[in-house]
Amino acid sequence: MADAHTSKDNSTLFTSLGRLAPQLKPIIWPLIWGLLSALAASVVALVVPQVYRVLVNTALQPGNGTKGLWTGAAVVLGLGILEAGLIALRRQFVIVPATTVETRMRTSFYRHLQSLAVEFHDRWGSGQLLSRAMSDLNFMRRWMAFGAIMLVVTTLTVVIGVSLMFSMSWQLGLIFLAAAVPIAIFGFRFRLSYGRVSRKSQDQAGDLATAVEESVHGIRVLKAFGRGPEALDSFAGQAQELQATEIHKAKSLAVFSLVVTLLPELALGSGLVDGILLVSAGKLDVGALVAFFATAAVVAGPVESMGPLMAMTLTAKTAIDRHFEVMDAVNTVTDPASPVALDSARGELEFRGVHFRYPDTPAATRDVLDGINLTLRAGETMALVGVTGCGKSTLLSLVPRLFDVTAGTLMLDGVDVRQLTLSALRTHVAVAFEDTTLFSNSVRDNVLLGAAEQPGLSPEDVLEQALEVAQASFAYTLPQGVDTLIGEEGLSLSGGQRQRIALARAIAARPAVLVLDDPLSALDVNTEERVTERLRSVLESTTTLIVAHRPSTVSLADRVALLQDGRITAVGTHSELLAANSHYRYVLASLTEEPRDLDSHLETGLGEELAEELGAGKEAGA
Ligand SMILES: Nc1ncnc2c1ncn2[C@@H]1O[C@H](COP(=O)(O)OP(=O)(O)OP(=O)(O)O)[C@@H](O)[C@H]1O
Question: I need a labelling partner for 560 at 20 to 30 A (CA). Which of 6, 24, 126, 361 fits?
Answer without folding.
Answer: 361
